[in-house]
Design a protein that fits this description.
393 residues, mainly alpha, 20 helices, 69% helix, globular, disordered C terminus
Length: 393
């Protein structure tokens, strides 16, 4: 193959047709099932799984002692009772206890399986509703596979984020309710109030605020003041985890803060976090004007920017990036792909999983760079009719 043909192979990526993508999706789906089975077996070993924190909180909540979800000594006892040698602190706000309590009624292995199936189904439903014609790419999205393998809450929060931006125009109250429900992990929704306000989307803005207040009030009424107070005590555990974050812990994070901190220390990391957050906020606020007040385009931008907005983020938090990734694919199929865009999108599609797998060997997690590239592709996307290749590829 000549150099020119090699360059064209990746620049145009004409080989990446819809038929081949469907075939690759089938193969990847089979591999996903094998990887999930392996993740389950590992979760049952003494090293345990992140899901132990959710299950342990669910056990004490189902037993009528929700405040003990934040008691480190009790959680150690409950979680190691499964045979695990490690255990994990529960640090999510009290409204999340509504989600985990039912799983505390099940044995840990059954709860792990049920949690993964239910949250994966919710995430798939949200993604397929947003991109019905691209449903195979939703189902086997590597970022979702990573979250499922950890049995983390990234699938649940991803479903809420996708629903929040997808429904903003057609079902504004439901959009606001989904955004408000992110009180279970509020740092993922940092940009959304500013995004809604800058776009004049006041109905979902108010609905989100009402949902937050309602969930907090309901948590207080059901779980009691002791639980709300115990939750504030968990902030110290989170702060200690960040302060003592070792290299491996920081490499698992996907933020400019964590990677700059590794390279140049805490002070430089904080500066990187501030700059990254301000950049993400500006992108969220200006995206309506930049992208012609198109709610789907602006929604894709704000979700890509959300991966840059917080200093505390992990690869398993990123299933929501399927929306901006597939928005670019959808736009390219309709109006044509720019040179190199197909190849870059292929890399970005696998980025949440690939950057996590490569982080420890490389000594750096490249996911914040991938998120910035994703946002740049959306920001510079041409108006319909001005793209590079012909549509339908």
């Amino acid at each position: 193959m000549s150099l020119a043909k090699g360059v064209a192979f990746f620049r145009d990526a004409d080989w990446l047709t819809a038929g081949r993508v469907r075939g690759y999706a089938v193969l990847l789906g089979i591999a996903c099932l094998a990887l999930l089975a392996n993740s389950f077996l590992k979760a049952m070993q003494p090293a345990g799984s992140d899901f132990l924190a959710f299950w342990g909180a669910g056990v004490v909540t189902a037993a009528g002692e929700p405040a003990l979800a934040y008691d480190l000594a009790v959680q150690e006892q409950v979680q190691t009772g499964t045979g695990a040698q490690g255990w994990f602190a529960f640090v999510n706000p009290p409204p999340f206890l509504f989600a985990v309590a039912p799983f505390g009624l099940l044995p840990f292995p059954a709860a792990w399986i049920a949690w993964v199936i239910i949250t994966y189904a919710l995430w798939c439903w949200a993604g397929i509703c947003a991109f019905p014609r691209l449903w195979p790419l939703v189902v086997i999205y590597p970022g979702a596979l990573l979250a499922a393998g950890h049995a983390q809450n990234g699938l649940l929060t991803g479903a809420l984020l996708i629903a929040g931006v997808h429904l903003v125009a057609r079902r504004p109250l439901w959009s606001g309710a989904a955004i408000g429900a992110l009180v279970i992990k509020p740092h993922l929704a940092l940009l959304l109030p500013f995004w809604l306000a800058s776009g004049g989307r006041w109905r979902p803005f108010v609905a989100a605020a009402v949902t937050v207040l309602a969930l907090l009030a309901l948590s207080w009424a059901v779980f009691g003041s002791a639980t709300m107070s115990a939750y504030t005590g968990s902030w110290e555990a989170s702060a200690t985890l960040m302060e003592r974050g070792r290299e491996e812990f920081l490499l698992r994070m996907t933020t400019f803060y964590s990677q700059i901190r590794l390279l140049a220390g805490e002070g430089a990391g904080r500066v990187a976090a501030i700059l990254s957050g301000l950049f993400a906020l500006a992108a969220a606020v200006l995206s309506w004007r930049r992208l012609g007040r198109d709610p789907r385009a602006s929604g894709a931008a704000v979700l890509a920017a959300s991966a840059l907005a917080t200093p505390y983020l992990f690869n398993y938090d990123l299933p929501f990036l399927v929306f901006p990734t597939l928005w670019l694919i959808e736009r390219g199929r309709r109006h044509g792909f720019r040179p190199w865009e197909k190849s870059v999108l292929l890399l970005l599609y696998f980025a949440p999983y690939a950057t996590r797998a490569a982080a420890l060997p490389l000594g750096v997690n490249l996911m914040p760079v991938a998120a910035a590239v994703l946002l740049w592709l959306i920001w510079t996307s041409p108006a319909p009719g001005r793209a590079g290749n012909q549509p339908g590829t």
